[in-house]
Design brief:
With about 160 residues, this protein is mostly helical. The protein has one domain. The protein has six helices and no strands. The radius of gyration is 16 Å and the shape is globular. About 25% of the residues are buried. The N terminus is likely disordered.
Length: about 160
C-alpha cells in the first residue's frame, strides 16, 4: 500500500469529522442563520468523486452522528443527507463534467432543497418555520463549493500545488 493510498483512506473520515466540528463552532446570533451545512457540502464532494466509498449508507450514518452532535431530532439530518445523496447519485455522471461554476449552482439547488425538507419536517412536527434569514445559507454554501471542491480534490489526489 503506497503512502498516497494510506493518506487517501483518511481524508474522507477526517474531512467529515472536520465538517461536523465546523457545524458545532459557536457563532454570533446574527451569523447563525448563515452557517453553511458543512456536512452536506463535504458529503456531496465524496458522493460525486468517490461513489464506491460514499453513498446512501454513509449519508445516513453521517446524518445520525450529526443529529446526536447537534441535538436535533434523531433521523432528521439523516433523512436530509440521504435525500441529497440520492439526488447526487442519480445525476453524478452529469455533475462530474460540469465546470465548477455550474456544479456550484447544482449544489446550491441541493442545499435549497435541503432547506425545504428541513422546513417540511418542522411543519410536520408543529414547530415554527425557519426565519427568512436561514434561506441565505444555501447561497453561502454555493459560494463555498468551488474552494471546498478544490481543497478536497487536492487532498484526495495528494497534490501539493
Amino acid at each position: 500500500m503506497s503512502a498516497r493510498d494510506r493518506l487517501g483512506g483518511w481524508v474522507l473520515p477526517l474531512s467529515l469529522l472536520l465538517a461536523l466540528l465546523l457545524g458545532l463552532l459557536p457563532l454570533h446570533a446574527q451569523l447563525q442563520p448563515l452557517r453553511p451545512y458543512w456536512v452536506a457540502l463535504v458529503l456531496a464532494y465524496w458522493v460525486i468523486e468517490t461513489p464506491s466509498r460514499a453513498g446512501l449508507g454513509l449519508a445516513f450514518a453521517c446524518g445520525l452522528i450529526a443529529d446526536l452532535a447537534y441535538g436535533s431530532l434523531l433521523g432528521e439530518q439523516a433523512l436530509r443527507l440521504v435525500i441529497m445523496a440520492f439526488i447526487l447519485q442519480r445525476f453524478r455522471a452529469r455533475l462530474r463534467f460540469f465546470p465548477l461554476s455550474q456544479q456550484a449552482l447544482a449544489i446550491g439547488a441541493l442545499l435549497l432543497n435541503d432547506r425545504i425538507v428541513d422546513a417540511a419536517v418542522n411543519l410536520a412536527l408543529g414547530q415554527p418555520l425557519l426565519p427568512w434569514e436561514y434561506w441565505w445559507a444555501p447561497l453561502l454554501g454555493m459560494a463555498l463549493w468551488p474552494p471546498l471542491f478544490l481543497l478536497l480534490d487536492a487532498l484526495r489526489l495528494g497534490r501539493r500545488d
